Amino acid sequence: MDINLERAASQINAVLQGKIRTPHVEAFFDEPTFTASYVVHDPATKAAAIIDSVLDFDQPSGRTSFKSADAMIAYVEAEGLNVEWLLETHAHADHLSAAPYLQEKLGGKLVIGAEIVTVQNVFGKIFNEGTRFARDGSQFDRLLVDGDKLMIGEIPLIALHVPGHTPADMAYIIGDAVFTGDTMFMPDYGSARADFPGGDARQLYQSVRRLMKLPDQSRVFLCHDYKAPNRDEYVWETTMLAERTGNVHVHEGVSEDDFVEMRTQRDATLSMPKLILPSIQVNMRGGRMPEPEENGVSYLKLPLNQL
Ligand SMILES: [Fe+2]
User: Fold this and answer.
1) Which fold has domain 3-279?
2) Residue 1's pLDDT is what?
3) 108: which DSSP letter?
4) Dihedrals φ, ψ of 90, to 5°?
5) What's the CA gap between 182 and 195, in Å, rounded?
6) For residue 231, how far is its CA from the centre of ligand 1 (angstroms)?
7) Which pLDDT score is estimated for 141?
8) Model confidence, pTM
9) Which residues pair with 19 in a beta bridge?
10) Strand order of the sheet with strand 142-144?
């Protein structure tokens, strides 16, 4: 086991042994984008982190709204939490982040993986962004690399870099809770696509395998759920044991080559997510809209024949 993974495993074990407090995790599911967002907090200090928030976006009208974010704000206020961190597991391609809105209302520092600069470079070209679009991650307050540690009150967080779905994906291990982003989905649904620019099925396999070495009892919280054959309710929490032994795409025993072949074939059949162009354009800016034009209106671009 590598050293950072070992640290994450021993943090989880310390929670299981009662040496570190168990964080409370509250999920908020957005059905239009099938996204699970989370408010995680330390029950003793009331310090909190918000993970992968959603800004409501009606594409036909180009209108944004805040129902999902306001539900999180209402919860934070009712519980008397102090938001210290706004964490993104990656630059999402299927929903816009509400992090800037939440930051304005609740405070907290905006955090993403350091490889976001790769995503900014790739999509900066696709959207033909000029020099005013910085590709250095400066839209975020903090960029994390593998093994970086934060505190949520008195509960530690370890960040692990888990590329594959995108180059910048991070998993956040908070106490005994593993927030995988899109690196894995529910055991009966499997895995995320790896065919976006910068994605890599081989890397995704290795990232999943790495996370699966964490303790069996780790609580696992996913960024999405789409239901699954024979299941008609949404579920976004499982355990590492269930993933390791039962994940339909990548359970123990599935070889890297077999996974890559399955993933590549399957990805070739998928159309692009409905909101990929608006989402990436906004999320690569830390969830901010492109600068308004001289009439005060922000516009999103639709590059033709680029994806
Ligand atoms: Fe994603």
Assistant:
1) Metallo-beta-lactamase; Chain A (3.60.15)
2) 76
3) -
4) -170, 175
5) 13
6) 22
7) 98
8) 0.97
9) none
10) 24-30, 35-41, 47-51, 82-87, 109-113, 142-144
Residue 116 alpha carbon to ligand 1 centre in Å: 13
| Residue numbers of the chain with a pLDDT score lower than 70 | none
Residue showing tokens 């899109």: 182
Backbone angles phi, psi at 6, to 5 degrees: -60, -40
Identity of the amino acid at 37: S
From the CA of 73, how far away is ligand 1's center (Å)?
A: 23
**b/e sequence 43-78, b meaning 16+ C-beta within 10 Å:** eebebbbbbbbbbbbeeeeeebebebbeebbebbee
Give distance in angstroms: CA of 169 to centre of ligand 1.
8
CA of 191 from ligand 1 middle (Å) equals 11
Tokens at 99, concatenated: 């992090």
273 vs 96: CA distance, rounded Å: 12
Calculate how far, in angstroms, residue 42's C-alpha sits from the geometric centre of ligand 1: 27
Sort 295 into a burial class: Cβ within 10 Å, 0-12 / 13-18 / 19+. exposed
Q: Which two tokens stand for residue 105?
A: 């209302």
| Residue owning tokens 């065919």 | 195
Name residue 28's amino acid. F
Residue 19: both structure tokens together: 């040496």
